[in-house]
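Comment thread on ticket #2218

A.B. wrote:
> Attaching the input chain for the structure job we discussed in standup.
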Amino acid sequence: MAATQVLALRDWAQPVRTYGPSLLAELPDPHAELLALVWGPRFDREHAHALLQGRSPLQPGVLQSVMDSADRFDRLAGAQQQRVRQFILRHRAQVLGWDNHACPASC
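C.D. wrote:
> Ran it. Output below, let me know if you need it in another format.
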């Protein structure tokens, strides 16, 4: 993967790392919620708004940061979007203790 692609993915992931734990922590399956946001070719902004409405008070800048991440995700190439999904699935496997979990080519 080219250095610019890696930087684009890191740029997208930074707000998720910053705000994700506080936004997704109380949900039964935070990884599933995150995957729901990025499963299609465009970031699901309506789902993001629904998740944010359930959180109060929001830290300043959270909504703008999420919408900026949505815009960055939409600009990623299809292969990069798939990498994002694979990273989420890999992290989920690590958290759930699926040490030998291999992501199939279709994920």
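A.B. wrote:
> Thanks. Noting for the ticket: The chain has five helices and no strands.
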